[in-house]
């Protein structure tokens, strides 16, 4: 009964006291929201905390929810704002990042390249895994504005209009940020283009 | 994407990479789910209560301890007020009874049904009369009617004595069904039956009342009747009470 309902209907049912409706919403969106946050902040532990906080805010704000609003827009707005706050806090702390270069020279590697470990070494044997890592690194190198647009567009299949609603900017601005993000990724992953072509 | 070139081979290759990354999405840990569901349940009950109809919300409010305490206080005060007013009504009741007695002077013979409470004086007299009843004779209650085998008994049982507004009908029925009134012819010459104590009591009471009203003529007539019935009773009970109004009949003096 609940599984066939739209998100918005489930939210209205939850407002009327149907806890089962919220349970369905949670099971439906927990995984995509978690991976969105994880790719945004790049840290699993932080992503778990932010996921919990995001759904807690959904619960607290459920009473004010209006049926006209798209549930995923509301949910990803909450998640995106949490991610933005988190990355800003992290910048202030100036912690060393695993993805950050160890010195200013462009040829130097990252921390991930020098951390020994059987798991990491075995992963690098896989071409796909290598490509994924490079892709993740390239995404992390995008600016915050470009990264959020890219993640929502390519990983969540959101229309530009909805992304504009989530980010709170005009739709054309979103398209522009997306174009810059793709261009930057193309440059970052240029050396892997041959691998990408042969990858399954 | 409208702003992208769908024929760009390099971009298509890169898209294939990140699309394959979607397949390897990680599952979040289940550790926080129980906490989320507990919070969701709490919020759901709050939202359901807020959306309940007004009477349901009012009922919920009434069930809260402060409101229950206030309601209990109101009930206790209400009971106190009711008891106090009832107490006042009880205190006022004896003062109204004599008024009724004055308004209805013929209410001295009550026949069946509920009788108004007798004034203290009258009750006292009755008590005295009952105590002085002859030995072996059963005490006769004031509300007892005349013997049922007589026509007088049947007449005495007729109601509406209290509602009769005529002044002093004296006595309702006598022996043999004759009306006993002050103006009625004397029946002393008739063969006297053993005097009924009830009859004599009633006559004495009526004579006393007539004397109290100042109706000495009537009182004298009744006193004569009593003396004819029972001279000893007259001396003991009636003569003293009617001393200021009635001189002892000659028959009594003679005895």
Oligomer class: heterodimer
Helix content of chain B: 55-70%
Which structural class do you get from the secondary structure elements of chain B? mainly alpha
Computed structural class of chain A: mainly alpha
Q: What shape does the CA trace of chain A take?
A: elongated
Extended strand count of chain A: 0
- Biggest sheet of chain A, open or closed, and with what strands and sense? none
What form of chain B results from the Cα inertia axes? Answer: rod-shaped
Strand content of chain B: under 5%
The Rg value of chain A, from CA coordinates, equals 19 Å
- Note the gap between the termini of chain A: 39 Å
- The DSSP helix count of chain A reads 11
The average pLDDT of chain B is 67
Q: Span from first to last CA of chain B? A: 145 Å
Largest sheet of chain B: none
Order of helices and strands of chain B: HHHHHHHHHH
Biggest interface, chains and residue tallies: A-B, 48 and 40 residues
In which range does the helix fraction of chain A lie?
A: over 70%
Number of strands of chain B: 0
Q: Sketch the topology of chain A as an H/E string, one letter per element.
A: HHHHHHHHHHH
User: Which regions of chain B are unreliable across 5 or more consecutive residues at pLDDT < 50?
Assistant: 96-119, 126-182, 184-188, 251-255
Any chance you could write out the topology, listing elements then pairs?
The complex is a heterodimer of chains A (200) and B (255).
Chain A: H1 7-15, H2 19-41, H3 44-61, H4 71-93, H5 111-114, H6 118-123, H7 127-141, H8 144-154, H9 160-167, H10 171-188, H11 193-198
Helix pairs in contact in A: 1-2, 2-3, 2-4, 3-4, 4-9, 8-10, 9-10
Chain B: H1 9-23, H2 33-50, H3 54-62, H4 65-103, H5 120-131, H6 151-156, H7 197-213, H8 216-229, H9 231-241, H10 250-254
């Amino acid at each position: 009964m609940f599984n066939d309902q739209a998100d918005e209907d489930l939210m209205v049912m939850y407002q009327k006291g149907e806890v089962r409706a919220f349970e369905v919403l949670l099971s439906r969106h927990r995984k995509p929201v978690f991976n969105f946050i994880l790719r945004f902040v790049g840290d699993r532990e932080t992503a778990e905390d932010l996921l919990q906080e995001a759904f807690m805010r959904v619960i607290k704000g459920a009473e004010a929810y209006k049926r006209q609003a798209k549930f995923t827009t509301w949910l990803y707005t909450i998640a995106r704002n949490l991610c933005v706050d988190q990355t800003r806090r992290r910048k202030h702390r100036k912690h060393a990042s695993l993805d950050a270069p160890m010195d200013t020279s462009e040829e130097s590697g990252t921390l991930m390249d020098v951390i020994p470990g059987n798991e990491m070494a075995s992963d690098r044997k896989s071409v796909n895994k290598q490509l994924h890592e490079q892709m993740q690194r390239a995404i992390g190198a995008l600016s915050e504005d470009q990264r959020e647009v890219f993640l929502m567009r390519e990983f969540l299949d959101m229309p530009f209009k909805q992304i504009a609603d989530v980010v709170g900017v005009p739709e054309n601005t979103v398209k522009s940020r997306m174009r810059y993000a793709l261009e930057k990724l193309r440059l970052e992953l240029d050396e892997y283009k041959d691998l990408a072509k042969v990858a399954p | 994407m409208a702003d992208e070139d769908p024929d760009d081979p390099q971009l298509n290759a890169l898209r294939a990479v990140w699309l394959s990354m979607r397949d390897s999405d990680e599952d979040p840990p289940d550790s926080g789910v129980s906490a989320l569901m507990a919070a969701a349940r709490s919020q759901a009950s709050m939202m359901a209560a807020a959306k309940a109809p007004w009477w349901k919300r009012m009922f919920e409010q009434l069930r809260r301890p402060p409101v229950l305490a206030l309601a209990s206080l109101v009930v206790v005060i209400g009971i106190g007020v009711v008891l106090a007013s009832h107490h006042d009504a009880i205190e006022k009741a004896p003062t109204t009874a004599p008024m009724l007695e004055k308004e209805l002077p013929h209410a001295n013979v009550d026949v069946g049904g509920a009788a108004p409470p007798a004034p203290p004086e009258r009750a006292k007299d009755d008590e005295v009369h009952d105590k002085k009843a002859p030995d072996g004779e059963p005490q006769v209650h004031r509300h007892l009617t005349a013997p049922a085998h007589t026509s007088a008994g049947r007449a005495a049982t007729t109601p509406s004595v209290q509602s009769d507004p005529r002044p002093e009908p004296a006595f309702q029925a006598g022996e043999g069904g004759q009306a006993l009134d002050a103006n009625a012819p004397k029946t002393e010459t008739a063969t006297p039956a053993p005097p009924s104590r009830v009859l004599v009591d009633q006559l004495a009471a009526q004579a006393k009342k007539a004397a109290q009203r100042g109706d000495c003529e009537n009182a004298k007539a009744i006193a004569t009747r009593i003396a004819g019935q029972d001279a000893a009773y007259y001396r003991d009970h009636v003569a003293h009470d009617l001393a200021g109004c009635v001189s002892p009949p000659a028959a009594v003096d003679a005895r």
